[in-house]
Amino acid sequence: MSHPGVNLLEFDLDALAAFCETLGEKRFRATQLFRWIHQRGVADFGQMSDLARSLRDKLAGSAHVAAPAVTTQHISKDGTIKWLFDVGGGNAIETVFIPEDDRGTLCISSQAGCAVGCRFCSTGHQGFSRNLTTGEIVAQLWFAEHFLRRHLGSTERVITNVVMMGMGEPLQNYDRVVPALRTMLSDHGYGLSRRRVTVSTSGVVPMIDRLARDCPVALAVSLHAPDDALRDHLVPLNRKHPIDELLATCARYLPHAPRDFITFEYVMLDGVNDTPEHAQALIALMRRHGAQGLRGKFNLIPFNPFPQSGLTCSPMPRVLAFGKALNDAGLVTTVRKTRGDDIDAACGQLAGDVKDRTRVHERMARQRSYTRRRADAPAGGAAPEGKTG
Fold first, then answer.
1. Distance of alpha carbon 332 from alpha carbon 324, whole angstroms
2. pLDDT (average), residues 370-379
3. H/E element holding 189?
């Protein structure tokens, strides 16, 4: 279905005001329009009763409000909902709502696919097609919030937290993500606090510094390893921005952050990054950077296996022992509860459907071959993957 003009979901409030000026309208009209769209979920300009008829007519001919089409919707037995949105060109993205007693969290995608290529992430194994637009990012929240209100029969806000932890690396789509964040934070939009909007990054150091200046929200960093040798293998971006550089940037972010800590994500991979030696190396790393002002909390994530990864999840006793070692050393650590795994909506499982432009399957095959060679090396040869102690 074709629509006239620009999709108003593309605009934060300042950009919408500039658009309204091109129509000869004052800024307060943009604020009214913004509230109709985001607070009330109205897409039909004809229903926006406090806008002048002349403005409604102008909007009808020059603009529209629409989310990408929903291809599928799956509801888990635990109440988690996953939507697949068709963003055109053979690309589909996934968005997940996770209900809990005290909050409702929406996990949003920022790219169709991902170019980072982390070993343990099924999105990365699909490769990368393109960045999402601001409107495609905001549309996930706009659609989910107003669908859930109807679904649950609620007039109150349902989504209290947004995490940019879906498909893609948000900070590699910076110029489109930041206006989307501003719409989420606006009191005329969704009114979310900076503490309740989290950007998760694999470590795009220059953009972390920019985010601190432009739109500081809660920050989560995908760490997954205590040293460069292992992280180079698990998170290829580490070769460009090594651990010490990344953690120094995190320390610089903290004075601007809405929370007094950075969340560090650590996926638990059997025999790769989960030994007592890895725990002690992680403790030493954090103590060294703690002396420079870094404060962090760890979120241990049980790995959700998928065939192409060649990896398996650490046994739960080892996950708990790893967490106890960190907690005993004074590092606040929790184990993430797996949600929505029966509908492939759990962490690391979001894959959507993308037209890869990065030949990722060839690169991943080389990585798996490298892992097998290390694991099969004779005694005294190369250590098995991750056994760096």
1. 10
2. 45
3. none
